[in-house]
Design goal:
This protein has 471 residues and is mainly alpha-helical. It contains 19 helices and 2 strands. Helices cover 79% and strands 1% of the residues.
Length: 471
């Protein structure tokens, strides 16, 4: 039952991300949105999700993971209903901010519940199944989201969350017995959580404003960087921090596995967002057809993730994850040459390459992170890897917003759900520039993945290696 609850919730959040990506051109047309505002429709959700994952992971460890999961699912479902009723771009962004908070409460706790219930020797297999659910959501999101946007309207994409969320809520509340709180009785670090929650939006808001509002953008970015150092200094002083920075200082496996995840998601997440805009604005496909064309990447991830998870139970995760990172780098590099005349066959083959790379990276990397900490820190570890994912996704879209601001700026972007004539060449130039940045990022991620060293997330008998026990 724990696996079923985690799998369903892991399906729901990425399904909504990929479905909304397909609907964004129609949303932009309805609300007459500019280039940067278009990016905020996707970024708002990921930003608050990244902000609150670690604090709610810690709250779940102290007060119970099931409780936090239930409250989060309620917030997520209610905010989706509000998003569907939005009458302006600003209202939709606000609803997506709240939706991200609900997602933060369910994503980390779902993985933590799994690692609490299943023994170490089965961790790779179970996490592989869970990651496959994530990719299934990513696979079906463009198809179902495109179909619903085309035939019913973009609001139906958000309304779909309401019955799905209600089913999960009912099942967990009535059927999932017991609760798990590995750090019950410990104090919650409120001050550290506030610093953590404020530093990320400063960075994400400041970066896109640098080209046009130099001083304001620089101040926000500076405040975000200062917040990172303040957070590290504060957390190192506490016995019960919201995020144990000593995990990063003394645990090489944990540190570089999380860094590899951050880099990978920073380099890959905006691919679907950019290609959704490209296929609808440049190739002039409907949301339904564009969604179908984006399916190969997450579909390949869905098929490969359980296999990669099982493989990481038997083969050193370092090798499996690094191979995946290298293949992903190749896929991103091929998209650097994307243009108006690029054939669909080339795009689909490239998406398959990206799917293979990410399929081999994610499950082994997650298994390495969860296997590098003690059981009492499963919630924090799950929240941390989830934070690396969502922070990376937010940074990925922030890079796109920054590039849009540099290349497109205040040029009128969308007219009647189509690119304006002035924005058309600027958009293509922006897309190619983004893929250059993402390729370089992912190439750096290969070295981060290799730097974690050999560890084995789980030994054949299910025990933890001696160096991980000390860590």
């Amino acid at each position: 039952m724990a696996l079923l609850a985690a799998v369903l919730s892991s399906f729901l959040a990425p399904f909504m991300i990929s479905a909304v990506n397909i609907a964004i051109p129609r949303i932009a047309g309805d609300f007459h949105a500019g280039a940067v505002e278009v990016s905020w429709f996707a970024t708002a959700y990921l930003l608050t999700m990244a902000m609150f994952l670690v604090p709610f992971g810690r709250i779940a460890d102290i007060y119970g993971r099931k409780k936090v999961f239930i409250y989060g699912m309620f917030v997520y479902t209610a905010s989706s209903l509000i998003a569907a009723a939005s009458v302006s771009g600003l209202m939709l962004i606000a609803a997506r901010l709240v939706e991200g908070i609900g997602a933060a409460m369910i994503v980390g706790t779902g993985v933590a519940i799994l690692t609490s219930v299943f023994p170490p020797r089965e961790r790779g297999r179970v996490l592989g199944i869970n990651v496959a659910a994530v990719y299934l959501g990513l696979s079906l999101g463009p198809f179902i989201g495109g179909m619903m946007t085309d035939f019913v309207g973009w609001r139906s994409v958000f309304l779909l969350n309401v019955p799905l969320g209600s089913i999960i809520l009912t099942m967990v509340f009535w059927k999932l017995k017991g609760d798990w709180a590995g750090a019950r009785g410990e104090r919650f670090d409120l001050a550290g959580s506030i610093i953590y929650v404020l530093m990320l939006p400063a960075l994400v808001y400041g970066l896109p404003n640098l080209p046009e509002q130099h001083l304001a953008g620089a101040l926000f970015v500076g405040a975000g960087v200062a917040g990172i150092f303040a957070f590290i200094w504060w957390e190192a002083r506490l016995d019960h921090p919201v995020l144990d920075v000593k995990l990063f200082r003394h645990n090489t496996i944990f540190t570089f596995s999380n860094l590899a995840a951050l880099i990978n998601y920073s380099a890959t997440f905006a691919v679907a967002f950019l290609l959704s805009l490209y296929l609808q604005f440049v190739k002039d496909y409907s949301p339904f057809v564009a969604g179908l064309l984006l399916v190969p990447q997450p579909a390949v991830m869905t098929v490969l993730s359980p296999f990669a998870g099982r493989l990481s139970d038997r083969v050193e995760p370092l090798f499996v994850a690094t191979f995946g990172m290298a293949v992903t780098t190749l896929g991103l590099f091929l998209f650097v040459f994307l243009g108006k005349g690029t054939s669909l066959a080339v795009i689909i083959v490239d998406l398959v390459i990206l799917g293979i790379g990410f399929g081999f990276f994610s499950s082994p990397n997650t298994s390495a992170v969860m296997g590098a900490v003690d059981r009492r820190l499963y919630g924090v570890a799950a929240g941390t890897i989830g934070t690396m994912r969502t922070v990376g996704q937010s940074l990925s879209l922030s890079v796109v917003m920054l590039i849009f601001a540099v290349f497109i700026g205040n040029t009128e972007f969308v007219s009647g759900a189509r690119l304006t004539a002035a924005a058309f060449p600027l958009f293509l130039r922006s897309v190619r520039a983004a893929f250059v940045v993402f390729t370089l990022l992912c190439a750096a991620g290969i070295f981060a993945s290799m730097a974690r060293g050999k560890s084995r997330a789980a030994t054949p008998d299910g025990s933890r290696p001696a160096n991980q026990e000390r860590a």
